[in-house]
UniProtKB/TrEMBL annotation:
This is Ice-binding protein C-terminal domain-containing protein. InterPro entries: Ice-binding_C. Residues 191-213 form the Ice-binding protein C-terminal domain. It comes from marine sediment metagenome. NCBIfam families: PEP_CTERM.
Amino acid sequence: MLHNYRALALVIVLALTAGLQASVVSYPLSIEFSGATPPAGAAPWLTAIFDDGGSPGSVDLTLTATNLVGSEFVNLWLFNLDPALNPTLLVFSAPSKSGSFTSPTISRSVDAFKADGDGWFDIKFDFASGGGDAARFGPGEDVSYTITGIGSLTAGSFDFLSKPGGGHGPFPTAAHVQGIGEDNANSGWITVPEPTSLALLGVGAIASLRRRRR
């Protein structure tokens, strides 16, 4: 019986260790920082999730227009990369998406893209702003990519702040939302205060296990 308990404990430890190795960084964008108009729906309005599956070299990215409403849409979405890495080496797979929107143009360069007047970013997703709602990245839609090109790449590689460049920030990500408010005439720049690493859930699980053993 003691042997069985030890075997079970080993299985639990291995499972928790595997969970800790997986790195997921989530950005729920829920703050308007430029002094303009926030989206009308409940925050977070947008969500970005980087997931490396526990191994370096390949990261899955999913962008979701979580709680945009009406004719609101994203036209720019910006991210950072570990300054020790070269963003021009990043390779993005063909997009997998839900919705009819036009796939964004993706640009990569070191500290090359500015969010409003605030901060310089390394990666820019440029979504359609014309063509009507059908072409725009709007409510409930999502798009996913697999990012490769750098052998050491992990989800944590995208957990860095922008280079300071204005009165607000720095931020780990920023997005410009248009089509807000009456006559869809307003827009705003949104971000998240800090990233949420879902890998910490594994730490919580271990702490819970320790508490139960006590």
